[in-house]
C-alpha cells in the first residue's frame, strides 16, 4: 500500500496527479505544515528534511517497505514501479535532464520568488529581483524547448510534464502583479491548457482537497514554515 503524506503546494500536487493518472491504491495522510506537523518526530522519521511530500510503500522492492521523500525521487520511484509515464529508452537521458532542470532550477527559483515577493520582510530588493528574474529565465528556457512540441520529453506524456505542471500552476504567485502570468510564454500557456484538460487533474485536485489545512499565515505559521528565518534565536544570532 502507498501511504502518501501531503500538504498544500506544488510538490505534493505532482504526486497526487501521478496517483490520479494511474489509479493505484493509496492512503492520503495530511501533514498540516502551517501548524508545524512537518516537524513532528514521527514525520521526521519518514522525511528527516521535514517537508512534504513523502511516501511509504509497504509493498516495496522484493517485498520490503520503501520510504521516500522529495517529489522528484517519488515520481521516479512510482514511474519505475508501475512502468508508467517514463520516456522511451532512447529518451531517458533527456527525461533525467529535464526532470533535474525542474527539480534544481524551475522549482527552487519559483519557490524563492514566491517567498521573497509574498512572505519575506520588505527591503530585500536584491533577493526579490534575483529570484524573480531567475524564475523568468527558467520559464523562457522551457518555453523555447516546447516550441513545436506537445510534451517536454519525446512525443509522450511523462513524469517531467507532471513535475512542470506542479510549478507552472503557481505562475500567478511567481509572477506577482501580472494578470496573465504566462502571456509572455505562449508555449507554456499552451502546455498548461493541455495539461489542465486531462481528466486526472480534477481527480488530483480532489485528492488535495480531502483535508482542510490551515491557510492563515500568522506568527505561528511563519515559525512553522520558516523556523530559521523568523525564530527569536535566529534573529539574535544575526544581530
Describe this structure in words.
The chain has 239 residues and is of the alpha+beta class. It folds into two domains: 2-85 and 202-229, Glutaredoxin (3-Layer(aba) Sandwich), CATH 3.40.30.10; 89-198, Glutathione S-transferase Yfyf (Class Pi), Chain A, domain 2 (Up-down Bundle), CATH 1.20.1050. The protein is built from twelve helices and four strands, in the order βαβαββαααααααααα. It has helices at 10-22, 41-44, 71-82, 92-118, 125-145, 159-168, 171-174, 186-196, 199-208, 219-225, 227-230, 232-238; strands spanning 2-6, 26-30, 54-57, 66-69. The protein has a four-stranded mixed beta sheet with strand order 2-1-3-4, covered by helices on one side.
The CATH architecture of the largest domain is 3-Layer(aba) Sandwich
- Give the total of beta strands: 4
How are helices and strands ordered from N to C?
EHEHEEHHHHHHHHHH
Helicity level, as a percent range? 40-55%
By secondary-structure content and strand pairing, the structural class works out as alpha+beta
| Uncertain stretches of 5 or more adjacent residues | 232-239
Strand order of the largest sheet: 2-1-3-4
CATH class of the largest domain: Alpha Beta
Radius of gyration: 18 Å
Shape: globular
- Mean pLDDT across the residues is 95
The CATH homologous superfamily of the largest domain is termed: Glutaredoxin
Structural domain count: 2
Give the biggest sheet.
Answer: 4 strands, mixed
The fold-level CATH name of the largest domain is: Glutaredoxin
- Enumerate how many helices there are, as a single number: 12
- End-to-end distance, in Å? 49 Å
Estimate what percentage of residues fall within beta strands. Answer: 5-15%
Amino acid at each position: 500500500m502507498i501511504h502518501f503524506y501531503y500538504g498544500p503546494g506544488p510538490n505534493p500536487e505532482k504526486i497526487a496527479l501521478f496517483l490520479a493518472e494511474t489509479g493505484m491504491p493509496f492512503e492520503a495522510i495530511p501533514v498540516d505544515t502551517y501548524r508545524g506537523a512537518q516537524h513532528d518526530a514521527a514525520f521526521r522519521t519518514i522525511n528527516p528534511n521535514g517537508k512534504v511530500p513523502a511516501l511509504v510503500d509497504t509493498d516495496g522492492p522484493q517485498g520490503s517497505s520503501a520510504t521516500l521523500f522529495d517529489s522528484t525521487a517519488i515520481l521516479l520511484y512510482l514511474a519505475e514501479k508501475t512502468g508508467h509515464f517514463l520516456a522511451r529508452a532512447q529518451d531517458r537521458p533527456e527525461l533525467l535532464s529535464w526532470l533535474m532542470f525542474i527539480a534544481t532550477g524551475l522549482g527552487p527559483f519559483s519557490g524563492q520568488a514566491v517567498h521573497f515577493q509574498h512572505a519575506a520582510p520588505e527591503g530585500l530588493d536584491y533577493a526579490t529581483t534575483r529570484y524573480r528574474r531567475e524564475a523568468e529565465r527558467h520559464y523562457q528556457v522551457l518555453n523555447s524547448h516546447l516550441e513545436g512540441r506537445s510534451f517536454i520529453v519525446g512525443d509522450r506524456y511523462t513524469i517531467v510534464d507532471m513535475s512542470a505542471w506542479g510549478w507552472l500552476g503557481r505562475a500567478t504567485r511567481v509572477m506577482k502583479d501580472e494578470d496573465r502570468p504566462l502571456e509572455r510564454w505562449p508555449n507554456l500557456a499552451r502546455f498548461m491548457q493541455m495539461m489542465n484538460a486531462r481528466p486526472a487533474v480534477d481527480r488530483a485536485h480532489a485528492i488535495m482537497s480531502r483535508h482542510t489545512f490551515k491557510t492563515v499565515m500568522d506568527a505561528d505559521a511563519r515559525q512553522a514554515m520558516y523556523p530559521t528565518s523568523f525564530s527569536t534565536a535566529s534573529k539574535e544570532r544575526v544581530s
